[in-house]
Structures are given as C-alpha cells and as structure tokens.
Amino acid sequence: MALRLPSQFSTPRHRRRGCGAATAPAAAAAGLSWRRSLAADALVSSGCSSSPLASSPSPSPGKSRARPLVTCTAQAPAAANLAPGTPVRPTSILVVGSTGTLGRQVVRRALDEGYDVRCLVRPRPAPADFLRDWGATVVNADLSRPETIPATLVGIHTVIDCATGRPEEPIKKVDWEGKVALIQCAKAMGIQKYVFYSIHNCDKHPEVPLMEIKYCTEKFLKDSGLNHIVIRLCGFMQGLIGQYAVPILEEKSVWGTDAPTRIAYMDTQDIARLTFIALRKENANGKLLTFAGPRAWTTQEVITLCERLAGQDANVTTVPVSVLRLTRQITRFFEWTNDVADRLAFSEVLSSDTVFSVPMNETYDILGVDSKDIVTLEKYLQDYFTNILKKLKDLKAQSKQTDIFF
User: Fold this and answer.
1) 100-120 per-position pLDDT tens digit
2) Where is the stretch described as Disordered (predicted)?
3) In sequence order, which residues have a C-beta less than 8 Å from that of residue 145 and are 6 or more positions away?
4) Residues facing 36 on adjacent strands
C-alpha cells in the first residue's frame, strides 16, 4: 500500500504513529534512490552491486585481490501516513553518537537550552551514566543492527547525528550502512528535521573511503526528502589536547608530519552552540554549512603554541608523508588490514598540502552570529594550560606536605 507523508505540518505540535521494527530494512524496496560510482579501492556498502575487474586474478591465501568496481546504491523509504497519533514536541531530540567528543557537547548544550534529550547509545560494559546524570534519557541501540533503530525514534522531532564508527570497525558498517538505515527509518517515521555532521571537502576526495561515505550520505539525506541541515567540520580543538598538549606536559614524543597542512580547528562547544542556532533558523533548512575556526594552523604552529604555553620544549617525532603512502599501499594487499589502509588514506589527506578552512562570513550572516563570539585556538589552549598547570602546582604543594613525618 502506498503511503504519503505531508511535507509540512500545520500545527506546532505534530502527530505521528509509531514504526514497526521491520520498517528500515523493508524500506529498501521503495523507489527514491541515489547512486554514485565509487573508485576501485573504495568501500563496498549495503545495497551495492559490484562487477569484478577483468584483470583481477584469484587471490593467494592471506591476500585480497584488487577491489571490485562498485556502484553504491541506497533507497529512501516511501512516505508514511501520519494521521492522528502520538503528539510530538518540537523540543524532543535524539542525539546519535552522544558519548563522542562532539556528541557530549551537543547533549550538554541541548539540555542547557531546555530540550528533551534522548541519547542513542550502543550497549556497552561501562554504561553512559554521565548522560543520565546530566538529565538526558539513554536508550540502547546499534546502527549496525537496523532492527534496533525504530524504537529510539518514537516521539522524536529532531535527530542530530554525530556518530561515527569505532577505529576497530570497518568504516562502512556504521558510517554508511548504519546511517542509511537511520535515515530510512527517520523518513518512514516522519522525523521533522535531521542534522548530519560531515567533513569539509569530502566531495573532493573520493579516494578516501570515510570522506566518500560522508559525501554519499549527504546526497542520500538530501534525496530522502527529509528536512535537514548538513554541517561540514574542519577539526576539533579538543583533539589537540591528547595529541599535543598532554604529551608535551608529560615529556613524551609528539607525532607530526612534514606536510604544511592547515586546519581551522573549532571548539566543539561553539559547534554545538551554532548547531542549535541553525535549528531555530528557518533559512538554514536544507543548507550545507561549513563550520571553521577563525584561523587555519599547521602542525608545527600548534606545537610551537603549546610549547610556549607549557613553558617547555616538545620532543617531536616527524613522520614523512612518503612513509604514510607506502604504509597504506602495503596494508591494502592484505584482507585483514584493509580498514587500516582506509584510515591511513584519511591521514594522508590530512598530511598533504591542503587547507581545511573556509570563510565563515556567509554562515555568520545566516545564523546571525558575531565572529568575535567564536573561541580562538590561542584562547582555548591558554585556558587549558592555565588550568592544568595550576592543578599540577597545587598537587605538587600537597605532595610536599605529605612528605613530613612525625
């Protein structure tokens, strides 16, 4: 039976019926689709057809043959009939990837602004109690298991998708197959808005599986008909703490490359704040926005800044870009290292002569934001080092007091 979903609701309190557990998998039979031909070394995703290369010989034991040419296809579900059902409040949101660096900041910002926050969290040995302590509701589900998704969307108005696969997982499992299932189910259940975080310039690097997947997902989301906002990101300031600040303070090796890559890092708290401003702006609907920090930095510039703020020199170990390329080529020969090669491809892009930045003037105009309100990397790192050095000083003073015996 053909079902229809109205593009707009006339009342602020929308009504929606539930969706059965089989909705997402069954949606693949619907007619809306988007196709993109991937490179021979790209991923093989769900719902894709492949034809082996004519010159590909049978692989020897322990080795994989050249990857097939694939056409990645995914289909959005038919619209659902949303005649009278359960009231859905515009403040009800589902955050996917809520335990990550960005996800937890999105959750905190949402709670601070009065949203009813539900967090989709994979079953894990250490439960995400900190999310409950903040006031969010936690539901267990797994994007790699589509049948677990529909129940998490009942009563939800907006989905904010911060999720990405774990390093030990095949990239396509969560970042492509899981996202397709999530978008399909969101469409079938009448989700009113979908926010997707992507990567800056992902459309320009089809040779990198993660970036190609992000671009494919952007297109699939657009063609699904969901009201959406795509936000491309350049880099997180928080990631620099573990990569540079902590090793310098602990006098450990700091790893870098010899490439002049420049990245406009942004504080994830600013990203979360701008996201919710975008949610409230009608002129942001359907937009592709790129969030970038005030300035693009090279690795060496970041290390120099950390050295100055820490008051000590870094022990820098430089990895030539040529080594990354060679490592990637070697790992592609073996089936069990294919995912390592995929991630090294992303590292290689970050280690090339590229700039991950974009002028923010248009974005500031759309959102009505003053550029002076965006935290600079100097300010972020200065606050970190000031706080951590004060704590270390206090701990040292306490340690000296405990050395006195009677």
Assistant:
1) 999 999 999 999 999 999 999
2) 1-21, 47-67
3) none
4) 72
